[in-house]
Write a structure and sequence with these properties.
This protein has 207 residues and is α/β, with parallel strands linked by helices. Helices cover 30% and strands 26% of the residues. It has a single domain, classed as Rossmann fold (3-Layer(aba) Sandwich), CATH 3.40.50.150.
Length: 207
């Protein structure tokens, strides 16, 4: 049983609800290790299962999701829970500012919405640009953008000096050295990915 309300109207939503505790226990433990009042950016939030859990724990969450279906489901989940500490932003985070295209699937809860592919348009911003325009800097960042994770990190480079930890779906192994050169070490790695070669990794700032 999940401790927050989450709509489960599609097959993908029901899957995410059913396997919430078992799919990525490392991600859950990482979120539980944050302090109440900490700030998390969830980039590629999908319907918000981890954003909702973090909000339930009292963490301030900014959830970014470009997919129309997922954004709408995430916003309804926020409203159903009356989570005032959860902000939902319909935008892709990358290493450029402008308009991009991405894949859009037919039901909420599905993933694979890769930026730069497909025919749907979306707003795209560097994380650093958002901070320059008043968005609050997070202490923690979760990135799951179906292959665009390095571009997301490049767009957030300036703010990383204030970030304590990241949970990143790594498909490009240059991410490990890229973050290493910016003061982060690999803490925990685990995989729930169907495609070979990818892995979820939690990085922490070297003190």
């Amino acid at each position: 049983m999940i401790p927050f309300k989450m709509r489960q109207e599609t097959k993908a939503e029901r899957y995410r609800g059913k396997w919430f505790w078992g799919k990525e226990p490392e991600t859950i433990a990482w979120i539980e290790g944050m302090g109440a009042g900490d700030r998390l950016w969830d980039i590629g939030a999908n319907i918000g299962v981890y954003a909702l859990y973090a909000s339930y724990l009292g963490i301030e969450v900014w959830a970014f999701e470009p997919s129309n279906k997922n954004y709408q489901a995430l916003l309804l989940n926020k409203l159903d829970n009356d989570f005032r500490n959860l902000s939902v932003v319909k935008r892709a985070i990358s290493n450029r500012d402008g308009i991009s295209v991405f894949n859009e699937y037919f039901e909420a809860g599905m993933s694979g919405h890769s930026i730069g592919e497909g025919g749907r348009c979306c707003l795209e911003s560097r994380g650093d640009t958002l901070v320059e325009n008043g968005y609050p800097v997070p202490q923690h960042i979760k990135i799951d953008t179906d292959g665009n994770e390095l571009a997301v990190l490049q767009g957030c480079e300036k703010m990383l000096s204030n970030v304590n930890s990241l949970c990143v779906e790594v498909n490009n192994w240059s991410i490990v050295s890229w973050l290493g050169s910016r003061g982060f070490h690999e803490d925990i790695n685990f995989t729930t990915l169907k495609r070979p070669g990818g892995m979820n990794i939690i990085f922490r700032r070297v003190l």
